[in-house]
Amino acid sequence: MLPDADVIIAAHRNYYAPDICPGFWDSIDYHLKSGRLLVIDRVRDEIIDPPMLVQWLRRVPKGAFVTTKTSSVGQVYRQIMDWVRNNTQFSDAAKDEFARGADGWLVAYAKVHDMDIVTNEVLDHSVKRKVKLPNVCQQFEVVYRNTYDMLRELGAKFNWKDPLL
Q: CA 125: distance to chain centroid?
């Protein structure tokens, strides 16, 4: 599975903050080491804040990062960008933002390597101001799921233990 940058950033800032849910990060570390989770280079490059998250990212094993700099990924990325550019549903600003981000590369890598994407975004057929990751996934027949589905598939369990015991 390939997490989008927002999955990692939102988890860190909000519902799985390391100070209240270290088990989430232990689980993510475990699955990055095992290869069940991978991070594409362009997602890694989008994670620039907060400093504590950047430090965590530096400790992730190098093998968990994969490159999008292959001809097969580049070819699919061009197909994705052609679809986005030619899609009259999206505003020009949305198309420009999409072109600057990692999402197109994420879908291209997932398509080439037959992997699922993890995202916080939801499918929206009427969206105009943003090219949503699930919309692109659907168009290119790439499976996507949310963070909770990822955790269920990975078998993650975060059990609380009474600190007095």
A: 20
Q: What is the pTM of this model?
A: 0.94
Cα dihedral 135/126/84/75 (nearest 10): 10
Residues 27, 29: Cα–Cα separation, whole Å: 5
| Residue pLDDT, tens place only, 56-94 | 999 999 999 999 999 999 999 999 999 999 999 999 999
Both tokens of residue 140?
Answer: 């290119």
What's the topology of domain 2-154?
A: Rossmann fold (3.40.50)
CB 85 within 8 Å of CB 95: yes
Domain definitions of the chain by residue range: 2-154
Q: What is the pLDDT of residue 18?
A: 93
Query: What pLDDT is attached to residue 39?
Result: 98
Please list, in sequence order, all residues whose beta carbon lies within 8 angstroms of the beta carbon of residue 165, skipping any fewer than 6 positions away. Answer: none
Longest dimension (CA), the chain: 61
